[in-house]
């Protein structure tokens, strides 16, 4: 049986915002079972709470941005990937500004901070979206599909007309003990011409070789090179894991992606939630006679009935 988890103590994460170039800071706090992941804009009146749910995505063009009314938090995917990759289901994330720190462009620093805080197992079961039927979302030559599988898996492929990238594919068996080594260190990447254009328009002001892989027309500009030969596709898997955390429960199935993006990930989540015949919400070995059953969220009890 899998149980929900949180962290043992709060952890402070600092860095700069990728777009503003200004200092950014988040404080991740423990949270009780069934509360999920939530962001709190502590710098705004009333400290608005933004649930980490796909229904709260307000922009997915260059990164994933969550919002409610006039409050928003951008570039949440790397932090969410670290939480999901470590199996942390519940946390209250206080953000003193509109951006999560980009740190080094990967999820590795967040993983390190969270491990230092410690992980606490909660005596409540973890549900999952158990895939029953295939589901596919197609956008031109890009697509994402999920199929039934006994273990959660991701197979991701990308294709960029660049000598350092080209077509890459990586198959990842989703496991808590492998995420920190295989996926978390993979950094975001961009092309010099695009970075220059964005900065000319007041965006990506915090972008640098310290927090992204930057490529010109011929190669990688970072002096230390790549962390993996296929770091580009591994980072795409990192983004997918972070985006899928917005479903609230992990997906038990085999997810295949070709030339994905945050926008395509979001379309997939919307389709999955709408087409409920493709999955069932599974809580292994828990029966309605279990004593704390009535304290489970109503949507979980309905799915178990």
Short summary of the structure?
This protein is of the alpha+beta class. It contains seven helices and 20 strands.
Account of the protein in words:
The chain has 305 residues and is of the alpha+beta class. Helix content is 23%, strand content 32%. The chain has helices at residues 77-85, 108-117, 176-182, 192-200, 231-244, 262-274, 298-304; strands spanning 3-7, 11-16, 23-30, 37-41, 49-51, 57-59, 65-68, 71-73, 91-95, 119-125, 128-131, 135-139, 142-147, 153-160, 166-173, 189-191, 213-215, 251-252, 254-258, 279-282. It has a 5-stranded mixed sheet, with helices on one face. Strands 12-13-19-14-15 form a 5-stranded mixed sheet, covered by helices on one side. The chain is globular.
Features:
305 residues, alpha+beta, five-stranded mixed sheet, 20 strands, 23% helix, globular
Largest sheet: 5 strands, mixed
The overall pLDDT average reads 92
Low-confidence stretches: 287-291, 301-305
Strand arrangement within the widest β-sheet reads 2-3-9-4-5
Question: In angstroms, what separates the terminal alpha carbons?
Answer: 19 Å
Shape: globular
Please state the structural category. Answer: alpha+beta
Strand percent estimate: 25-35%
Order of SSEs, N→C?
A: EEEEEEEEHEHEEEEEEHEHEHEEHEH
Helix content: 10-25%
Computed CA radius of gyration, to the nearest angstrom: 19 Å
Task: Specify the number of helices.
Answer: 7
Q: Strand tally, please?
A: 20
């Amino acid at each position: 049986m899998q149980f929900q988890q949180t962290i043992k103590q709060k952890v402070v994460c600092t860095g700069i915002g990728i777009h503003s170039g200004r200092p950014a800071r988040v404080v991740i706090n423990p949270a009780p079972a069934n509360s999920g992941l939530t962001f709190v804009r502590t710098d705004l009146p009333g400290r608005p709470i933004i649930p980490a749910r796909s229904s709260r995505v307000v922009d997915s063009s260059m990164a994933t941005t969550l919002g409610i009314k006039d409050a928003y938090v951008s570039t949440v995917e790397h932090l969410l990937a670290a939480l999901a990759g470590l199996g942390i289901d519940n946390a209250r994330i206080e953000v003193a500004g509109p951006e999560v720190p980009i740190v080094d462009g990967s999820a590795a620093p967040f993983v390190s901070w969270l491990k230092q805080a410690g992980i606490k197992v909660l005596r409540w079961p973890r549900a999952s979206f158990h895939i029953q039927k295939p589901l596919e979302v197609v956008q031109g030559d890009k697509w994402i599909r999920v199929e039934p599988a006994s273990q959660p898996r991701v197979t991701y492929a990308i294709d960029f007309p660049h000598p350092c990238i080209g077509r890459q594919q990586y198959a990842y068996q989703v496991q808590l003990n492998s995420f920190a080594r295989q996926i978390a260190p993979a950094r975001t990447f961009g092309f010099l011409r695009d970075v220059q254009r964005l900065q000319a328009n007041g965006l990506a002001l915090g972008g640098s070789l310290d927090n992204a892989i930057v490529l010109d027309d011929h190669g990688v500009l970072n002096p230390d090179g790549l962390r993996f030969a296929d770091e580009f596709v591994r980072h795409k898997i990192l983004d997918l894991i972070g985006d899928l955390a917005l479903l609230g429960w992990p997906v038990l199935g085999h997810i295949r992606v070709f030339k994905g993006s945050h926008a395509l990930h979001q379309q997939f989540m919307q389709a999955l939630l709408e087409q409920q015949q493709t999955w069932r919400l599974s809580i292994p070995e828990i029966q309605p006679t279990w004593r704390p059953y009535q304290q489970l969220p109503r949507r979980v009890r309905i799915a178990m009935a």
